[in-house]
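Tetratricopeptide repeat protein structure dump, as promised
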Amino acid sequence: MNRSLLVVTILALFILVPISSAETDEMTADEHYLMGNALSSFGQYENATKEYRLALDMRPDFSDALNNLGIVLNRQGKYEEALEVADNGIRVSPNDADAWYNRGITLGKLSRYEEEVDSYRQALAIRPNFSSAWENMGASYFDQGKYTEAISAYKNATSNDPTNAIGWYYLGTIYEKVGQYNEAVTSFEKAIEIDPNLTVVQTRLESVRKNATTTNFSQDVVPQNNTKPKEKELLSGILNILK
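structure tokens r here:
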């Protein structure tokens, strides 16, 4: 049996029966990493943390393990630890766009928005078409009340990934926030065209159409819409458990 497949098989048993220390001692750094990914996908973040740390004990420069360790620490609310891991990831791989991106997410959790945006800029300098980094930058600007900058970031996100329905939706919510109803309608329509199952977009679209066609508000009028963009987390290699 392929060793990576064996790791996943062990994981299935692990959910019911803990793995012995002897079995764990025989695993490689890659296998601990794959185990961490699988555990994370099951929402077992504490156990995933242990596996990533075991992988890093064996290979301290394992950048994917550092990235994913930071993410599972974030999901446990351990933001200071996650930031330390993210900084270490950048020291190991300064040209890794994912490392800068994950650092930005952690800084956002700590409400350190200017540093968060700077981290996304670093990621985008390495990977200009990094749509998720553009999205998270937009979400950060939104949190700061910088709606013009948020719109610009989301326009870049949708330009780099035109099929991203959620990106179009969030762009629409920001346009609505600043009273640019026609632009909001266009963005919401694009989101629904891509994903007709987004019922929340249909609800917003119906409301904004009324404002766009029957009301001539100025752009400094803020509609009652509490929807805000959410940052995206990207777990490195989570879809490659059997790789």
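The chain has a mean pLDDT of 86.
lmk if u need the other ones
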